Amino acid sequence: MHIDAAHPFGDGDGVDAADEDLCEADPLEGLDASTRDALTSATALLDASMSWTLTAADAARFAASDAGDRASTLGFTTAGGARAMLEHAAARLAPKKPKRFLDLGSGAGHTVLYFAVLDPSLECVGHELSAERVASSRDALRRLDAERPDLDLANRVAFVQGDMTLADTSGFDIVWASTLALGDGLRLRLAEKLVAELDAGVVLYSSIALVAGSSETPLVVANSWSHAHEVEVAVMDADTAVAPHLREAAHRRRSEDF
Ligand SMILES: C[S@@+](CC[C@H](N)C(=O)[O-])C[C@H]1O[C@@H](n2cnc3c(N)ncnc32)[C@H](O)[C@@H]1O
User: Fold this and answer.
1) CB distance 222 to ligand 1 below 6 Å
2) How is 156-225 classified by DSSP, letter by letter?
3) CA distance linking residue 151 with residue 121, whole number of Å
4) Are 111 and 77 in contact (CB under 8 A)?
5) 179 Cβ inside 6 Å of ligand 1
6) Given the CA of residue 76, which atom of ligand 1 is nearest to it?
7) In this predicted model, what pLDDT tens digit does every residue of 177-206 receive, in sequence order?
8) CA-based angle 44:105:65, to the nearest 5?
9) Residue 2: predicted pLDDT
10) 3 exposed, middle or buried (CB, 10 Å; 0-12, 13-18, 19+)?
11) pLDDT tens digit sequence for 117-139
12) pLDDT band for position 256 (50/70/90)?
């Protein structure tokens, strides 16, 4: 049995009506032909394996978690959006080279695969609650690995099924959390986890600010519902704390429940 997943950000064709008139620069300009080809293949394979619907088993997983009413929403980062995020992170981490990337709520696997193609020395892990989305991510990975063995994707990319608040965050230097559709309680628990676990210097991206004290100018990261989507950026340090608005929102929600 399939249940329609809510996707309030559009019908999944990747383009907002407002965006259709925009004449944008090529987001992959300057990349070598081999990388462009691999990104194009990744997009085609991700499109082919991705499902916008939620199985009954996955619906039960979301119901059992307190992720929030819209947490099962599936949108995804574009190849150009992933490139913007990775290049931004590399500049923040320099002269150290990025080694490991973690996507919390990795959906159908887009950002994980794009990062792995864009930096052939990067280890990339996606953590996702929906078993079906993890399966489709692994399917796209297997097919891309067969097409492009030179990228050594099978040894560098992994998709883990489970709640993001239980993810192993150790050893990652870039973390991306797609927090837009998560409930207030989950956002707060995720922020507390990341503040407690991430080392100083880790570059953290999130759709809604999770931390305060180390925030930078938001970054435009194009995704399936907007070419102009801005994500919050923070470089973790000793002063990084949970963003106060998360505690207030979770507190407000608890009061309303009484
Ligand atoms: C916007 S989508 C994924 C976007 C993806 N990170 C990308 O950049 O392409 C957010 C994902 O978070 C997942 N999610 C929601 N709550 C979760 C939880 N508690 N643990 C793990 N994943 C969760 C949803 O199933 C959904 O696939």
Assistant:
1) no
2) HEEEEES-GGG---TT-SEEEE--TTS-HHHHHHHHHHHHHHPPTT-EEEESS--EESSEEEEEE--BSS
3) 9
4) yes
5) no
6) 9
7) 989 899 999 999 999 999 999 999 999 999
8) 135
9) 37
10) middle
11) 999 999 999 999 999 999 999 99
12) low
Please, what sign has the CA dihedral across residues 118, 182, 241, 128? Answer: negative
Q: Could you report the per-residue pLDDT of 53-78, keeping only the tens digit for each? A: 999 999 999 999 988 888 989 999 99
Measured from the CB, is residue 169 less than 6 Å from ligand 1? no
CATH superfamily of this structure's domain 28-257: Vaccinia Virus protein VP39 (3.40.50.150)
- Ligand 1 center–CA 104 separation, angstroms: 7
CA of 163 to the centre of ligand 1 (A): 9
Chain-centroid distance of CA 93 in Å reads 19
pLDDT beyond 50 at 253 = yes
Cβ–Cβ under 8 Å, residues 96 and 122:
no
The domains of the chain are located at 28-257
Instruction: Name every residue whose Cβ is closer than 8 Å to that of residue 49 and which is 6 or more positions away in sequence.
Output: 108, 136, 137, 139, 140, 143
Please compute, for residue 169, the number of CA atoms within 13 A of its CA located in the half-sphere on the CB side: 25
Name the token pair of 198.
């991430």
Q: What is the pLDDT of residue 6?
A: 38
Using CA positions, which residue lies closest to atom 8 of ligand 1? 77
User: Cα 78 from chain centroid?
Assistant: 11
> Collapsing DSSP states into helix, strand and coil, what is residue 127?
strand
